[in-house]
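Regression test case RT-17, inverse folding.

Input:
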């Protein structure tokens, strides 16, 4: 992929009765592939870490947090802001399937500006 093209600007919104936050991200197509894999892992009841790539904040999702008896998420933006947040979640049944549907929708709308014509060669889409 041609650097700095075909990126998707996104926001992670975090909110509870106590804390609200907004996290801006630039996503590559492989970030969505990793989120798809993370959803598969969560569906088996295991914990996941997404976006642990040194360019984005680390997002961890616990399938089940024993202390709170719910799923939970933690976001750590140590490199940029030094902030970290942990939130127990109240999720409805089927939330993983809902996430998969949203992921498909994002993939259909992905901003594709360049085309790789051969290894290392790119041209603008028309």
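Golden output:
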């Amino acid at each position: 992929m041609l650097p700095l093209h075909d990126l998707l600007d996104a926001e992670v919104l975090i909110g509870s009765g106590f804390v609200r936050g907004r996290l801006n991200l630039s996503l590559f197509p492989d970030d969505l592939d990793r989120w798809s894999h993370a959803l598969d892992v969560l569906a088996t009841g295991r914990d996941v870490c997404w976006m642990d790539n040194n360019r984005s904040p680390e997002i961890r999702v616990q399938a089940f947090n024993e202390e709170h008896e719910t799923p939970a998420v933690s976001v750590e933006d140590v490199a940029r802001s030094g902030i970290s947040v942990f939130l127990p979640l109240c999720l409805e049944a089927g939330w993983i399937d809902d996430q998969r549907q949203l992921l498909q929708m994002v993939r259909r709308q992905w901003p594709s500006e360049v085309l790789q014509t051969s290894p290392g060669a790119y041209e603008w889409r028309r």
